[in-house]
């Protein structure tokens, strides 16, 4: 048996493979273009899609969901005033100091009936600490008429534009809110409408009425009790450690991440994850047809040459290796261009891309914003590159095998 | 000592009515250091015989021994090793790897053998010099004439000092002057290195260089200029 010096041989195969890549410029450039566009399609479109979903989740999270909610255990089954909880304990407050928590706030959230002189409607009355909610709740940015709440003591109410329309009331007018106190006695009180909010979702506009936290507590005679504690973390994807920590700090309360509060939204995120894979595979398959075809053509053109090197004593597996190295060069040069292209096409839109300019108008009705912020995840970039290289090499096995299989005598002596 | 021994060697292509008996019962013994020529009309089996001796094809019947090894009993990998370490080839055309320079083409076989870089460079330069190509080391095949390319092929066939060089119509694409130069070179190398040569040809000029002329017809040896050497 011969002792092949693997390093020497690989070095030689590498030189030959690299030069072979550039033998047919036109074909190579077309192939590189195809790989580059393929990789771009993987990275760029995934970033856009993730951006859209991110936007959707962020929007939904601001719609009274937040990242983590804490309630009395029975609140979710029966969100009445009876299932409220005390203001956060010292140990819970301690836990809420965590640097991974951006902000938190307590809320009163009870069913109520709102009436104007003409109409009445069932709503959810929400008492908030307006300053703490600025980042966590959509409301601060949605008041189109009048003003936002000023403090927990603020006893004005903010209602949705659609609700104002139904109640035939307007800014500055008074409405009456009726609910129950903890003793099941009816309480009612007049409030002045100090603000009207406008959102992309009609249901939100007709369902929620906001006032100051303390003013709600006084009105409902609940002392310092609250309905929920909402927490905003730094990243909605990594709220689980916080959830665990808060559970430890408040063992007698129910601590829920947003995925459990809004299961639909959580499913969305998983679907995207799966879609990324499907998308990568689809793009890859399209690309691999070109790749396999290019390599087969190259191998076919070089039948005689391959016969020659085989006649000279090069073993079939080295010929296989040479074609694979050639494919690796094609793939990696293509990848370099693809990544560059992706980067160049994301730079101009990284601070937001107004897609209303593209005429995508349905979005607003679907409750989505028209500003798109692409989200480039390192894992997507790595995955797309790995998919292309690994599956690309696997696809190249066929042409490589075809090359290695040539019978030397036929290839070299038949002209 | 014999470099090549063929006994009862036959090669049949195809089967049944379509069968072609390219070689029938060839007995041949080539002594070490021979400079033998195979001649004969087209289709007489010259290429087939060279391919069998070189392990590029397998016989239907018979034995082939090259450098004391039974070529007919080898598997593909063993044949590849045999070619790599014991046999040098010069084909009629398409001898060189287009993307490699003259020197790289010559070094190719040594690289496959795993020879160290410095040794390779030295050997390839000196053999290119010997075949009269010094100064052309860095040319690619496309930048050389047919005769120069054949000389590179000869250099490559000889550089790893094989026991046997098989050349199938090496002058077929060359003009007579270039062919003569090439033959002078081969004879010179044969004399100085003692390498065994078997050269197939139609060319009278080439035959005139032969120390032993083997004439073939219809897959048989019709006349062997040194039949006396066969035991
Ligand atoms: N792969 C093959 N399949 C079928 N028949 C073949 C094959 N190779 C050679 N032959 C036949 O075998 C016979 C010998 O062919 P070979 O190529 O050895 O002749 P040759 O003496 O080299 O001829 P030339 O001088 O034209 O090169 C011919 O009849 C040829 O047609
Ligand atoms: Mg022939």
What does this entry look like structurally?
- The complex is a heterodimer of chains A (415) and B (231).
- With 415 residues, chain A is α+β, with helices and mostly antiparallel strands.
- Chain A has two domains: 202 residues, no CATH class; 168 residues, no CATH class.
- In chain A, 53% of the residues lie in helices and 18% in strands.
- Chain A is built from 16 helices and twelve strands.
- In chain A, the strands form two sheets. Chain A has a six-stranded mixed beta barrel with strand order 2-3-8-5-7-6. Chain A has a two-stranded antiparallel sheet with strand order 11-12.
- In chain A, α2 runs antiparallel to α15 and α11 runs parallel beside α15.
- The longest helix of chain A is centred in the last third of the chain and has 39 residues.
- Chain B is of the alpha/beta class.
- Chain B has a single domain, classed as 3-Layer(aba) Sandwich (Rossmann fold).
- Chain B is built from seven helices and ten strands.
- Chain B is globular, with a radius of gyration of 17 Å.
- The relative contact order of chain B is 0.20.
- Chains A and B meet through α1, α12 and α16 of A and α2 and α3 of B.
